[in-house]
Write a structure and sequence with these properties.
- By secondary structure, the chain is of the alpha/beta class.
- The chain folds into two domains: 97 residues, Beta-Lactamase (2-Layer Sandwich), CATH 3.30.450.90; 240 residues, Rossmann fold (3-Layer(aba) Sandwich), CATH 3.40.50.
- It is 36% helix and 25% strand.
- The protein contains 15 helices and 13 strands.
- Strands 9-8-10-11-7-12-13 form a seven-stranded mixed β-sheet, with helices on both faces. A six-stranded antiparallel β-sheet has the order 3-2-1-6-5-4, covered by helices on one side.
- A hairpin with a 6-residue loop joins strand 12 and strand 13.
- Helix 7 packs parallel to helix 8, helix 8 crosses helix 10 and helix 10 runs antiparallel to helix 11.
- The longest helix has 15 residues.
- The protein is globular, with a radius of gyration of 21 Å.
- The model has no long low-confidence stretch (mean pLDDT 90).
Length: 360
């Protein structure tokens, strides 16, 4: 057993999402969204480096020493998988590990709306799950892919950096490809994917123009493509996809996207106040003919209104979802205010409203 595994076992027992190991500081975990120190000695650089190198593949150690940071996946059989990131900082080396549960939670266990399960049965198109880092995008996607894996007889291909949730082939054949290990880049894997007979493609992160271009093209040529972006709302997600393209291509991509987009899910995590744990607020945009038309005509600023009148299709705006969580007494008005889009709507719920210059 590697020396570092003791920290992972503690992390798992406490229900922490992340482990932070930093030279010159004691270890820490992120528990229910907040950093908490572990009662342990200060980690010295050489000691921590030896601990980290014990679990890192040789090629990843080489990349780390050459570039100063590296990502990879680490697994403790029977416990969990971890997304690892090593990086250099002022006092020496450091690392952050995100726990990826070995059991894939279903959409019912996660409390996701039923409409998300329907996305798993789409024949083609682009579905984007968005939100800030650590908002549970991978968990939501894993639940949707799990539905497809159990209910379809198709080929699912995932491209991730690193591989997070591992799906065992059930009704579908599932192949996982890790960037840096099985392929050089996301875009290289997507180019290859079109010759690998996939029905469903999961792109771990749409982080550059080439990857976004290939994902949109794959969605418009008969594949069902799931991807993630770091955007905060459905409308901003559509704008982000279009704006990454050069100005002379934006009109064409707007038309292609309007045909290919099927749904955008923007999510935010909250700390529950009624019990230990966290819950999720979702903004859901379903690409109805009206929404497609708004995208095609460059009227994304009206998407919010279309979602408000499209509740029968399963659509909802983020602030409505947050308000429901407040009504259930699951989240505090203060945290809701910090993470909502329309501050004025939540301000009357606060006992001591802040004088926030950003609201001006």
């Amino acid at each position: 057993m590697a020396k570092i595994d003791a920290f992972f076992k503690l992390m798992n027992e406490q229900g922490a999402s992340d482990l932070h190991l930093v030279s010159g500081q004691p270890p820490a975990i992120r528990l229910r969204g907040e950093i908490e120190r572990i009662k342990y000695k200060v980690l010295e650089n050489d000691e921590l480096k030896a601990m980290l190198y014990e679990i890192a593949p040789e090629d990843k150690v080489k990349v780390f020493e050459e570039t100063g940071d590296v990502d990879f996946g680490y697994e403790i059989p029977g416990l969990a998988r971890y997304r690892a990131n090593f990086f250099m900082q002022r006092n020496g080396c450091a690392a952050v590990f995100r726990e990826i549960p070995s059991t894939i939670l279903t959409s019912d266990q996660l409390g996701l709306p039923p409409v998300l399960n329907k996305l798993a049965s789409l024949p083609r198109g682009l579905v984007l799950v968005t939100g800030p880092t650590g908002s549970g995008k991978s968990t939501t996607l894993a639940a949707i892919i799990d539905v497809a894996n159990k209910s379809r007889q198709d080929h699912i291909l995932t491209v991730e950096d690193p591989v997070e949730f591992v799906h065992v082939s059930q009704g579908c054949i599932v192949n996982h490809r890790e960037v840096g290990t099985h392929t050089k880049t996301f875009s290289a894997a997507l180019k290859g994917a079109l010759r690998e007979d996939p029905d469903i493609i999961l792109v771990g992160e749409m982080r550059d123009l080439e990857t976004i271009r290939l994902a949109v093209e794959a969605a418009s040529t008969g594949h069902l493509v799931f991807g993630t972006l770091h955007t905060s709302s459905a409308a901003k997600t559509v704008d982000r996809v279009i704006e990454v393209f050069p100005a002379n291509e934006q009109e064409q991509i707007r038309s292609t996207l309007s045909d290919g987009i099927r749904a955008v899910i923007a999510q935010v995590l909250f700390k529950r106040i009624d019990k230990k744990g966290r819950c999720c607020a979702l903004e859901i945009m379903i690409a109805t003919p009206a929404v497609r038309n708004l995208i095609r005509e460059n009227k994304t600023y009206q998407i919010n209104s279309a979602m408000q009148v499209g509740k029968k299709y399963g659509m909802q705006v983020l602030d409505d979802a947050i308000m429901e969580l407040i009504d259930k007494k699951w989240v505090s008005p203060d945290e809701a205010y910090m993470k909502c889009n329309e501050k004025a709507r939540f301000r009357p719920l606060l006992k001591n409203p802040p004088s926030d210059f950003t609201d001006a």
